[in-house]
Amino acid sequence: MWGSRVALRQLRRIAVGPLNITGSLTGNVQREMSTQRVYVTRQIPPDGLKILRESGQVQFELWDSDDTPVPRKELLNKVKGVDGLLCVLTEKIDAELLDAAGPNLKVLSTMSVGFDHLTLEELKKRGIRVGYTPDVLTDSVAELTVALLLTTSRRLIEATHEAKTGGWGTWRTLWLCGYELANSTVGIFGLGRIGVAIAERLAPFKVKKFIYTDVAPRPELASLINAEYVSFDEMAKQSDFLAVCCALTPETKEICNKNLFSKMKNNAIFINTSRGGVVNQEDLYEALSTGQIAGAGLDVTVPEPLPTNHPLFTLKNCVILPHIASASYSTRNAMSSLAANNLLLGLRGEPMIKELKL
After folding, report:
1. pLDDT at position 33 over 50
2. 256-282 per-position pLDDT tens digit
3. Is there a catalytic annotation at residue 323?
4. Rounded to a whole number, what is the largest CA-CA distance in the chain?
């Protein structure tokens, strides 16, 4: 279980700062380590690049763009012979790429909390250590989730459009009415750090009750927000607002489907800021277009980006964002710093700040 919010803040401070990693090394070891080659698959935020540049430990090359992912052919060529790889979630790290990299590759650091873009069994088979960036994006994701929930439930996108296009006429009694949080039941699917942080932010809105479901009860975390553990079906039936915060696993793939939506209230708001793959989007479209549920807010979809002609974009009661939950300057810099530090520590053979246990 995770500790207090104070502990999380301490972790952020550790992750953001550069490591003093060369001071106690002998000259021979420094020279050996300085020859380590690293490829960075994106122009990551400056704090992380600064850590790599000032480490004196690695020679790195990067795909110098933040607008477009590195082409697959280019990536397969650039990873040949590298000792370490720092990637983002747009890169598929699979057997093909690992074969191209060769036996020198010992450490992979992903600037993400999710790892469904990594073929974990291949990484484990080859003995490659994996670092990732949880914790540092908790506040940012929680804030965005609340913003998306309010935008969807209070129909802000519709209202902005009406104001801009001349739809704002005389005052009407039920025009653009939405649903408020006061006296509501909020369900959280997947109670972890982010789920707790969302509930903490929603509590001042006078939410009546928090409920959650997970693979098992999480009493320590639930006690922080006074949340009640319920079954998956009961969460669907009771929730006025349902926030999806679970990881994407074989068990959760498209678990939010017609079975879930058919049990939800017709005034319920569905919010997903976890992974697009946990939702069956055809079933969601059906639920929204028929009034089975009142609205949905999505920060994640399948695929990403979602094609502009996708049916979900035709619905007024569906708000879709381009996967920006962690998109604050401080959080993205913290993620890049943690990813860089994980990489350097892993290449030294030391424990990473955040290492995925394979």
Report:
1. no
2. 999 999 999 999 999 999 999 999 999
3. yes
4. 79
